[in-house]
Amino acid sequence: MNLSRSALAAAAGAVLLAAVTVGCTAAGAPAAVPPAAGDSGATPGTGETPGGTGTSGTGTGGTGTGGTLGSGATPGTTPEAAGQVPALAAERVSYVQRNWGDPKTEMGIVIQAPKDWSMAKLSTFEVRFSSANKLWNLRVNGWATDDPVKTLADRKYRSVQSVPGFQLISRVNGSTKATNPAFSGVVFHHTTLTYSYLEPARGQRLVVERFVAFNDQPHTLFQLSAGGRPQDAAALKAITDKATADFIRLP
């Protein structure tokens, strides 16, 4: 069933009432409400996007037109040095709840992110988490957009398929039940692109990039991606899954 915007607003109100009852797991946080599509007017580029080293792109439905190569790459990191670091193990990643958003309160988005990774705020609802060794990263863009998940996934694929060394590993449609009590009953539907490309500074890179909708809505609620090396694939997927399941949007 496809919901109109008015229906989505009603659904959001129902979630709000539920959230008031169960509360948000972030200490002192207000109740969570999935926003209506198009609440931002822009969708900053998300992910470890091959093709540039500038700031995140905006207003392009997440194609990263501004260029976000490496999402925290450190000049001087060589493929040889990166290859000496053992693969990231999913079972050894610890998580902590992180929040960001309105500059006055830093509330808006809440997810579970790797505990020891630093957080850099890129815009009001977009952040990048980076490991100390700069090999791994997680980027989350909480702007909602009118664009359907399929549209953004198709656009992303077109934007990166000509990058040197690009290889599409998989494109998978799936669903995830929200695990945060404030989003009780919410089901996220998503398309996940997993691809690799060659970066001269750090060698072969692997990206798990996901575009996520809310319940029956076709519109994209948020986007996220995890970047690393091919040998880190299992851990990158686990990090993406964890952040997806725990995502909530506060008013």
UniProtKB/TrEMBL annotation:
Keywords: Signal
Region feature Disordered, mapped onto this chain: 32-84
Region forming the signal peptide: 1-31
Superkingdom, taxonomy of origin: Bacteria
Composition skew (Gly residues), residue ranges: 48-70
Compositional bias annotation for Low complexity: 32-47
Name under which the protein is recorded: Lipoprotein LpqN
Originating species: Kribbella sancticallisti
